[in-house]
Amino acid sequence: MGTEALRNQIEELREELIHLAERMGLTAMEVVEKSQKLDKVLNEYDRQNQRKK
């Protein structure tokens, strides 16, 4: 997946995470899982950017 696609996915996951957290609270399992998914995508984005340097 390219960096542009990762950026789009990051933005989508952030939006979803914010809405979930507002509805369910920060400690809800769904919120934690979405946060972990976002972390993985952010790490992948960072790895790809490090390779380019």
TrEMBL record:
**Coiled-coil segments:** 3-51
Question: Known Pfam families for this protein?
Answer: SpoOE-like
Alphabetically sorted, this entry's keywords are: Coiled coil
Q: What would be an example GO MF term here?
A: protein dimerization activity
Q: Which GO biological-process labels does this protein carry?
A: regulation of sporulation
SUPFAM superfamilies from the UniProt entry: BAS1536-like
Protein's recorded name: Aspartyl-phosphate phosphatase Spo0E family protein
